[in-house]
């Protein structure tokens, strides 16, 4: 199993945990993935961005600014906030967020 596959395995466990804005949000989950990967010798980082997301508000689809974080392993985007393809608050799907400004750490 290569390092990206191992990171995805760890990320899947983290994705299954309930999302909570103040206790277990995308920033916290991504930082956990980074720590767990680094403990196994897998280089990983966290990207925090302000991006555009499609949201359903009051029955209408709008593009709104969103603060989002994700992990990066071997240059690949690894989402941790929710199971892949599932939506969160206002029907926003994290994988579809388009970054405008991003900070890597």
Write structural notes for this entry:
This protein has 105 residues and is of the alpha+beta class. The protein has one domain. Helices cover 26% and strands 36% of the residues. It is built from 2 helices and 4 strands, in the order H-H-E-E-E-E. The chain has helices at residues 3-15, 26-39, and strands spanning 44-57, 60-73, 76-78, 98-104. Strands 3-2-1-4 form a 4-stranded antiparallel beta sheet, with helices on one face. A hairpin with a 2-residue loop joins strand 2 and strand 3. The protein is globular.
Count every beta strand, where a strand is a DSSP E run of 2 or more residues: 4
Radius of gyration: 14 Å
Largest sheet: 4 strands, antiparallel
H-E order: HHEEEE
Shape: globular
Order of strands across the widest beta sheet? 3-2-1-4
Structure in a nutshell:
This protein has 105 residues and is of the alpha+beta class. The protein has two helices and four strands; from the N terminus they run H-H-E-E-E-E.
Features:
4-stranded antiparallel β-sheet; 26% helix; 2 helices; globular; alpha+beta; 36% strand
Architecture blueprint of SSEs:
Layout: H1 3-15, H2 26-39, E1 44-57, E2 60-73, E3 76-78, E4 98-104
Helix pairs in contact: 1-2
């Amino acid at each position: 199993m290569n390092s990206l596959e191992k990171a995805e395995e760890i990320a899947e466990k983290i994705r299954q945990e309930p999302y909570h804005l103040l206790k277990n949000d995308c920033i916290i989950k991504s930082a956990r993935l980074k720590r767990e990967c680094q403990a196994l010798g897998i280089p990983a980082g966290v990207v925090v961005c302000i991006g555009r997301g499609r949201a359903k508000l009051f029955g209408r689809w709008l593009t709104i600014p969103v603060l989002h974080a994700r992990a990066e392993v071997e240059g690949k985007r690894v989402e941790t906030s929710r199971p892949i393809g599932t939506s969160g608050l206002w029907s926003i799907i994290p994988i579809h967020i388009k970054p405008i400004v991003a900070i890597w750490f």
